[in-house]
Amino acid sequence: SFSLLVEDSPDVVQLAEALQSEWKQAGMNVSIRQADQVAVINAARGQTFQAELFRWRGAFDPALDVSPFFSCGSSVNNVGICNKSLDALMQKGIAERDRAKRVAIYQQVNERLAEIFPYDFLYAADWWRIMSPRLHGVPPMPDNSLVLTNAWLGK
Question: Which of 16, 37, 50, 52 has a CA between 20 and 30 Å from the CA of residue 150?
Answer without folding.
Answer: 37
